[in-house]
Amino acid sequence: MQRERYRIADLIVDVGAVSVVRQDGQAVPLPQLSFDLLVALARRAPDVVSADELIATIWAGVAVSDETLTQRVALLRRALGDEAKSPRYLRAVRGRGYQLVPEVRALAEGEEQSRRRRIAPALAAIILVALGIPTALFFSRDHAPAAVSTRSPSVTELLERAGTYLRQHQESDNELAVELYGRALGLEPKNPRALAGLSLALAQRATKFNRRGDEGDRALELAHRALGIDPRLGLAHHALGLALDGQGQVRTALAAYLRAAELEPEPTSALASAANLLQVQGQLARALETNLRAARGGGDAPNYLEVQLGTTLALLGFEQASAVWFERALELRPDNVFAAAAYARMRLSQGRPREADEIAGRAIERGIRRPELSDLRGTVALMEGDEPRARAFFQDALAIDPGFGRARTRLLLLDQESGGSDLERRYRQLKDEIRQGRAGGDEWPDSAIDEMLLETGFGHPDAALQALDAAIGLGYRDGDWLLLDPMLAGLRGNPGLIRRIGEIRHRIDAERQGVLGAAWLPPSFLGGSAAKM
Questions:
Q1: Domain 5-106 has CATH 1.10.10.10
Q2: Is the pLDDT score of 169 beyond 90?
Q3: Helix (H, G, I), strand (E, B), or coil: what is residue 100?
């Protein structure tokens, strides 16, 4: 059978050997997906190949986005030493797809090898003579180069590499994890680790990178499939927890995270996820203890551990210790998608809006796109009386994540103040959506806070306080924020609000007592001097 080989400018692509070699004999190592992309373009050269066709060919039924293909093209270009602005090998054709730049020629069997066999020995002899080295020493059979075999990555290798990407918690790395888990499932469709890993990556895509769609449902289904095959797989319980977490099912998600921590050999990540939901539920002392267990648990520290420690300490009122952890998070991981938002929120709750705005602004300039950052900057703009600027920030938050309810609520309230049209219908529609979400199992306090904002803005203080009661029952503990948010000005003098803020502070005091003097607390930790444990 004739081998499938192509010449692309100075590259020789051998499909059967999964190799790319330059004309001078230098090998060009390519990951499997990059190699598959190059071959797919070579087979269709000189045609332009659409993104849909390339995705269908390379990922073989695994659902990936156009952005995934774009990143793969960038990786191939980097490996070949190519540039998008002046491409030598691969060009993007706007609106149509991708195309190889040089002429592509299919090589006949033995064509390029025979040419190399003629040239390489002569060239080597010239070099050796020039160096004064006996040619016989290098052309004897005893010194013949050893054969090098190549093969496609195994499922184990694919899973290990995918796990490495998954733990980076960055969008581009997460997309690579999706690709690799998909390839592993192509080889072993019932591999529980591949199913659980893909579930985690899809859930991260939805919750951390604002790409909701049907990713949450797919993540949930994959996690259940993995558990059906291996009920004791800790990674599958962790995947189930994140899928449920993304749907707002806090209690069942927490149970899944804790089960994962029991089963996984390195439970740090599952413990950190559990600690986050304990904090959401208002169990601040237990959240702090669980975060510290995660920090001491061995293995890689979760990317969000410092942020969670800072947030929990801020809610407990340990401001100095909280600032240490937020600043540490921003210094160690400046691309952390949650650190700046949490730190800025803490500073705003402390009555330091200018500092909060600067923290959020620096993160946005760095390219971090989280709706919370824009919402916070819009809130600061409202505090300064700059409504047009505030509106622009809230619109930006909604553009980042169309499902971000806080921005929709705030924009509706701004329209209500300016006498916009169709306000009553929009008010009822948004209120119904919020309540339907809670009736459907959304246990995050944020939705109840959104309802409180909405009812306050439309002049319904009793309904606003009922929504706040629901938020407190779900775990809301930021009483200082209630005294600062400019859209709650109409509720500020209500005795019911003052009583509820007092209740929040009473609950926080109880949590503080569970922390002070606890046996699990490192010495000097609450003073902010223990950045290492």
A1: yes
A2: no
A3: strand
